From TrEMBL:
This is UvrABC system protein A. Residues 12-471, 473-780 form the ABC transporter domain. Keywords: ATP-binding, Cytoplasm, DNA damage, DNA excision, DNA repair, DNA-binding, Excision nuclease, Nucleotide-binding, Repeat. One of its GO terms (cellular component) is cytoplasm. The keyword Repeat applies. Pfam families: ABC_tran. It comes from Saccharopolyspora kobensis. It is found in: Cytoplasm.
Length: 791
């Protein structure tokens, strides 16, 4: 064999590109791109330019779909069915592992420990080494209730039916009082009814429970109590029937009905719902009427007494879960028992991964619904850090969210480590610090929505800097420190704040100015603002929780703008408003107003075909005959926010109430969204700005924004700063929890928490103007801000 042949590239080594040709998902316009494998590629571009559509909607989605197809039809039946993305050619794909910012389930029983399998390992550890020995790992689980029972069972044996008596018992760790939730809710009865009134006088304060309404008739006609007697004079039995009675069949005015006590009825109708998806007036009622307190029986640990009694070196499983993870890692290092050697080793690795990724300040009993977007994403990364898989594609969605500039360096090291193991790492990112470490950059744009969806630049960082793309031009942007800062008009006094890791913090937050609260991840910023700002301060909080929305919801329905538009159409045409709703009377009968007809093909991906009758317009043909200012309802919904603002602002199409909302959407930089665009197609940054726009009309005087730069391109940050200035100038107080140096530099006042995370944080390490912070360079934030402004 000649040397020439041995040196030639083996054909198996020639597939070193992921090739995408003709991608048309969402707003992508026939995008073709080649991405090097085993390298770190960063995707940049303004919010809404199509980054997620290319990375998540095309590359990762197709990889996952093809992997699912390798399973048997039986297994596929249990998996989500994925349609093939709209793309001509996808070549060279490898297995994709997606680490996105989707919040972890906010189920009250889900904790950091259960979400990362650390709890499962601890339970086995305690069932083997705990003294006294109480039972299997189930006995330490707060999701398993203790049950025992006995009875006769029938089964067929040798053609005869045999009866036998059987006993069974399951020993679980769930606290019976709070059912493993750690907290119990109590109703404040004075918020449910006025006890000085009788049922017929309408005592209920619950939304929708009027005396002449449906519920009033049921309670009044039930016969369990005198409807003319004031509630305070009820006997114990009558009060029990009013509040707690089990569902019972009754007859009222000749109609068969089911009567149920007020409290179980409210628990089913209101408490079973997610708080975010409630209507505002119902959410306000629930917040008033229900108090949550730590369960008195288990002290909030979720575990019953038996589970808490078994200990290793004086530490119970409840104590272990309550420890800060870096302390727990130290404690497990001190355990040395060869009988559980492999288990200890894996548990140790998991806990060390938490510390390494900068989450050592969490505890395993922290409810996963309370993690911020960035914390949830890093928690998901933990599974992959110790993985020995190589040649896979890791896909990250802005992994630097919620990270202080000091922590971004650690995240960069982790991304490079994953790449150096021989993996392809794809990152959607806006922060220059992460863009700088990329081997390859793909910049999408030039604008957002329909103005985006094309490739503006491909190459390395130097090439991007020299290019004329929006990202290239803004990469070196630096916000200057203000020459002079605004004078506060008042202050919000916080005294003795000790929520989570705060250490009796006393601080005055200035009002009437732009105040930025900063500090490393886990230093106590959210705890200070959420847990300590008095509820009566008129605070409007715009956080990162996702907008709940089906494919029938869109910016017009979410912001409430569609109501005045429907009324204007109805008035102009002399018909009723319900006709102009695709979810009500005006819906196309063939597709029920969805615009597409779904055919479910069991374990194969369902097929969505545009409805032939309405051609995807969602309305009946008759409804589209009605016009306002020369346009029908479908044409109005397909306008962009900017076009609609012009159309509904003047002339025959004037709708002042909708125009106001549209102006706010333009203010937050969403002028390119279509009014009828499904909420499910919006990116994270767009959703947060949509939320901000809806809150801007509220009456409160104090706005609390949780990382409003999430998902924002460098070019959009300027616009956000302008918006924050306008809010302050209109007399509002703006408090921003933020890590972005541009927002810090633009602030009038900075409160810096730290110095570290967890129990190393929770103290105020600096308060003053940004200029004073830069000059002092006394904190981590000060160091990074000084470097940023070039001081």
């Amino acid at each position: 064999m000649s040397t020439a042949t041995t040196n030639a590239l083996h054909v198996a080594d020639s597939h070193d590109l992921i090739r995408v040709h003709g991608a048309r998902v969402n707003n992508l316009k026939d995008v073709s791109v080649e991405i090097p494998k085993r390298r770190l590629t960063v995707f940049t571009g303004v919010s809404g330019s199509g980054k997620s559509s290319l990375v998540f909607g095309t590359i990762a989605a197709e990889s996952q779909r093809m992997i699912n197809e390798t399973y048997s039809a039986f297994v596929q039946g249990f998996m989500p069915t994925l349609a093939r993305p709209d793309v001509d050619v996808l070549d060279g794909l490898t297995t994709a592992i997606i680490v996105d910012q989707e919040r972890m389930g906010s189920d009250p029983r889900s904790t950091v420990g259960t979400a990362t399998d650390a709890n499962a390992m601890l339970r086995i550890l305690f069932s083997r080494l705990g003294k006294p020995h109480i039972g299997s790992p189930q006995a330490f689980s707060f999701n398993v209730a203790s049950i025992s029972g006995s009875g006769a069972v029938k089964f067929e044996r040798g053609g005869k039916t045999v009866k036998e008596r059987r006993d069974f018992s399951v020993l679980g760790g769930m606290c019976p009082n709070c059912e493993g939730r750690g907290s119990v809710n109590d109703f404040d009865l004075s918020e449910l009814y006025d006890d000085g009134k009788s049922i017929n006088e309408g005592p209920f304060k619950v939304p929708g429970y009027s005396s002449d309404g449906w519920y009033g008739r049921i309670f009044g006609g039930s016969g369990f109590f005198d409807p003319d007697k004031p509630i305070r004079d009820f006997t114990e039995q009558e009060l029990h029937d009013l509040l707690y009675k089990e569902p019972t069949k009754i007859k009222v005015d000749g109609i068969n009905l089911t009567y149920e006590g007020l409290i179980p009825k409210l628990q089913k109708s209101m408490l079973a719902k997610d708080r975010e998806s409630m209507q505002p007036h119902i959410r306000a009622f629930v917040d008033r009427a229900i108090t949550f307190t730590d369960c008195p029986e288990c002290g909030g640990t979720r575990l019953n007494e038996t589970a808490r009694s078994s200990k290793i070196d004086g530490i119970s499983i409840a104590d272990a879960c309550a420890m800060q993870i870096n302390d727990l890692a130290e404690w497990t290092r001190g355990l040395d028992d060869s009988s559980v050697g492999p288990l200890l080793e894996t548990l140790q690795q998991t806990l060390d991964s938490f510390v390494e990724i900068g989450l050592g300040y969490l505890s395993l009993d922290r409810p996963s619904g309370t993690l911020s977007g960035g914390e949830a994403q890093r928690t998901k990364m933990i599974r992959h850090l110790g993985s020995s898989l190589t040649d896979v594609t890791y896909v990250f969605d802005e992994p630097t969210i919620g990270l202080h500039p000091h922590d971004i360096q650690r995240m960069n090291d982790l991304l490079l480590r994953l790449r150096d193991k021989g993996n392809t790492v794809l990152v959607v990112e806006h922060k220059p610090q992460t863009i700088a470490i990329a081997d390859h950059i793909v910049d999408l744009g030039p604008g957002a929505g329909t103005a985006g969806g094309t490739i503006c630049f491909e190459g390395d960082v130097e090439g991007l800097r020299a290019s004329d793309s929006v990202t290239g031009r803004h990469l070196e942007d630096r916000t200057k420190l203000k020459g002079e800062v605004r004078t506060p008009t008042g202050q919000l006094e916080i005294r003795g704040a000790n929520t989570h890791n705060l250490q009796d913090v006393d601080v005055d937050i200035p009002l009437g100015v732009l105040c930025v609260i900063t500090g490393v991840a886990g230093s106590g910023k959210s705890s200070l603002v959420r847990g300590s700002v008095p509820a009566d301060a008129g605070v409007i909080e715009v956080d990162q929780t996702a907008i709940r929305g089906s494919r029938r919801s869109n910016p017009a329905t979410y912001t409430g703008m569609l109501d005045p538009i429907r009324k204007a159409f109805a008035k102009a045409n002399g018909v009723k408003p319900a006709l102009f709703s695709a979810n009500s009377e005006g819906a196309c009968p063939a597709c029920n107003g969805a615009g597409v007809i779904y055919t479910d093909l069991a374990m194969m991906a369902g097929v969505a075909t545009t409805c032939e009758e309405c051609e995807g317009r969602r309305f009946q043909a008759a409804v589209l005959e009605y016009r306002l200012g020369g346009k029908n309802i479908s044409e109005v919904l397909s306008m962009s926010v900017a076009q609609a603002e012009e159309f509904l602002g003047e002339g025959e199409g004037r709708v002042p109430a909708a125009h106001k909302i549209l102006q706010r959407l333009v203010d937050v930089g969403l002028g390119y969204l279509r009014l009828g665009q499904p909420l499910t197609t919006l990116s994270g940054g767009e959703r947060q700005r949509l939320k901000l726009a809806t809150h801007m009309s509220e009456k409160g005087g104090v706005y609390v924004l949780d990382e409003p730069t999430t998902g924002l391109h460098l070019a959009d940050v300027e616009q956000l700063l302008g918006l924050l200035d306008r809010l302050v100038e209109s007399g509002k107080s703006v408090i921003v929890i933020e890590h972005h140096q541009a927002v810090m530099a633009h602030a009038d006042w900075i409160i810096d928490l730290g110095p570290g995370a967890g129990h190393d944080g929770g103290r105020i390490v600096f308060e003053g103007t940004p200029a004073a912070l830069v000059e002092a360079r006394s904190t981590l934030t000060g160091e990074h801000l000084a470097d940023y402004v070039g001081a």
